[in-house]
Amino acid sequence: GRGGASFLGRASPIRQWTVVRTPSPAPAVVVRGPSELTVKPSEPLVLSADAAPATCWGGAAGVDFTWTVAAAADAETGVAATAAATAPALVAALEAGRARVRIPRLTLTPGVAYSLRVTAAMAADASLSSSATVTVTVADEAIVAAFEGGASRLVGAADPLVLAWPAVVDPSDPEDATAPLAFELNVTSETEAAAREAETGELLASWAAVDDAAFAADRRSVTFAAGALAPGDYAFRLIASKGARATTADVTVTVVAGSAPRVAITTALAAKVNANDDILLRGDAEWTRAGVPIEDFVFAWTSADGALDLERPGTTTTGTSGPNLVLAPAALAPGGSYLLRLTAVAQGDGVGASAFATVAVVTNRPPFGGDLSVTPSAASALVEPFVLEAAGWADDPEDLPLSYRFGATALAPGAAAADAQVLLLSDYDLARSVSVFLPAGDYEVVVSVRDFYGGVASAEANATALGEGAISTADAAEVASAAATAAAEGKGPEALQIIGALGQGLEAAASAAARRRRRGLQEEVGAVDTSEASALYALLADLASSGTRASVGAESVYAMAAQALTSIVH
């Protein structure tokens, strides 16, 4: 620019910009989904990019994609994390990526923020390129800690007590490659604390560390000899730590005089379970001292906190009188917490003796608050794409990130296939929108939104793909070419979706042609003829054989391609 003075005599400083013009337009590239992500290292990460070449490239608009680490730094301090950026597993995953890149679980380093760059270059001239970045912050996952056997139990003072926690794990480092887990166990007498409260009016827990001599060699269990604990109520707190991260787990033990059966709930539940799933709780009981096996116990499941009526019809599929309990789907409310108790009463030689164990069940709240839009609501079948976008979805912070899957159901009989069916438009992905082709017909499109714990919510909208009768040679060739381009760029799910849409469209066209022939009508001009069908058959067969290179499961590729190929034959 050129400096100049205003009428007040003031002049702005001179600023310069450098603009480099390429001989031909470079493709415009974007990373699908949010530009900033927070992910968990225990889950694989799939990123997708889209590139739009300038229209002047015409049929030579092939695009090559390259993924690299632009930067990596400690998420809190900003200090460069060179080792994380150059980790061989990460470099290999990025080098294998094309439009889609899949980074395996445990590849990204917790506590590091990565700036990942995708560069799209014209296949005919690599100098014509553009890039986009996405910031991926890898969270420090909480250590998962729980006692084996349940949240509370009853034991006899004359019996040894074993407390174990074999399933404690660091999800971001399950093999403890970076550092071992450390364990500390504390105990307090709730009976003594209650007596102090009655005497002083204050409830003070006096925690004492369990002596190291009681720990097993791997420090994942402790054993108290018979008579070590006097009758009363005790609270044990496990502290599992690695570096600065620590998690606690609690268990309450009621000690009674003499000997008692041992009851345990052996199912290791996730931190959250989904209320729409079957929830299985396995129970066990024995009384070694009295020689009473599990077969000689009478069991009863109850709600320890009164939050659930187990006797209500439809709540369980097993009833409440066996060692195992299965809660039916939707028996629990999403976002709830329940405490269930298993009581076992000995029969035979141990008649009347009983013991119990409890387990806490926390249910996941699925994603909420979002909707689905379709743009446009009506478009030409197999010619104009529909853009499906899920917006406004939220969830609890520990349940993120969310992933999205899109599908469609043909509403009109014969619109796309002989029977109305769900057409999968994409698999679960971080991208909140997808562009798809649909065969002619009216559709209900749906988005399924899934959180980290597998909770799923959905929303629906309507779309109409306009057109009927024959598919023209030009349209069929253009759609098949779009599938080939998607496969070549590594967009496996997109390629499959286009193949499926073309196959259903061809099947519908064949059905329409047969109906016309039965009515003695002429074939429509422009329909795909035998030689053109042969060419399409060869193209789709090649797509099927290259399915694994398109980062898609072989079964999905062959099933979808087989449908399209069969339609062409018809």
Task: Describe the model.
This protein has 7 helices and 30 strands. By secondary structure, the protein is an alpha+beta fold. Strands 8, 10, 11, 13, 14, 16, 19, 21 and 22 form a 9-stranded mixed sheet that branches. The chain has a 5-stranded mixed sheet with strand order 24-30-29-26-27. It has a 4-stranded mixed sheet with strand order 2-7-6-4. Strand 21 (337-346) and strand 22 form a beta hairpin. It is globular, with a radius of gyration of 32 Å.
In short:
This protein is α+β, with helices and mostly antiparallel strands.
Write the layout of secondary structure elements.
Layout: E1 28-31, E2 36-39, E3 45-52, E4 63-74, H1 82-85, H2 88-96, E5 100-103, E6 112-122, E7 125-138, E8 152-156, E9 161-164, E10 182-189, H3 190-200, E11 208-209, E12 221-224, E13 232-242, E14 245-256, E15 262-265, E16 273-274, E17 279-281, E18 283-286, E19 297-303, E20 325-327, E21 337-346, E22 354-364, E23 371-375, E24 378-380, E25 386-391, E26 403-410, E27 422-424, E28 433-436, E29 441-450, E30 456-466, H4 473-488, H5 492-518, H6 530-545, H7 554-569
Parallel strand pairs: 2-7, 8-14, 16-22, 24-30
Antiparallel strand pairs: 1-3, 3-5, 4-6, 6-7, 8-22, 9-12, 10-11, 10-13, 13-14, 15-18, 17-20, 19-21, 21-22, 23-25, 25-28, 26-27, 26-29, 29-30
